């Protein structure tokens, strides 16, 4: 079982690195335009989200990361997993915020300027 966990951890690390490498080119450098926001319409609450969170708020976050901020590899599954966490942490760095990978009120403020 430990081998399986090691492989999953290594795979998550490789995947997160790929997201940061691919997503970093031009990501979050240019401000979003109005057109992208229409792709991520959501009327629900904006709770704190972190690894393990799930639901429509997570799907909304993933849509914003992909469509508005041009991260290309974040699955819009509604499950907050490692790729989502790594992308959030990268976005936080781009906006000079603490890079926690957790979407709190400050990060929602960055996502919805």
Automatic annotation (TrEMBL):
It comes from the Bacteria. The keyword Signal applies. Residues 54-111 form the Peptidoglycan binding-like domain. Keywords: Signal. SUPFAM superfamilies: PGBD-like. Residues 1-30 form the signal peptide. InterPro entries: Peptidoglycan-bd-like (IPR002477), PGBD-like_sf (IPR036365), PGBDSf (IPR036366). This is Peptidoglycan-binding protein. The lineage of its organism: Bacteria, Bacillati, Actinomycetota, Actinomycetes, Kitasatosporales.
């Amino acid at each position: 079982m430990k081998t399986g966990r090691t492989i999953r951890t290594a795979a998550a690390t490789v995947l997160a690195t790929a997201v940061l490498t691919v997503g970093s080119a031009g990501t979050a450098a240019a401000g979003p335009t109005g057109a992208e926001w229409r792709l991520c319409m959501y009327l629900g609450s904006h709770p704190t989200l972190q690894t393990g969170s799930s639901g429509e708020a997570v799907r909304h976050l993933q849509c914003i990361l992909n469509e508005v901020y041009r991260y290309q590899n974040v699955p819009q599954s509604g499950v907050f997993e490692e790729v989502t966490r790594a992308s959030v942490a990268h976005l936080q760095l781009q906006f000079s915020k603490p890079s926690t990978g957790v979407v709190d009120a400050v990060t929602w403020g960055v996502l919805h300027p």
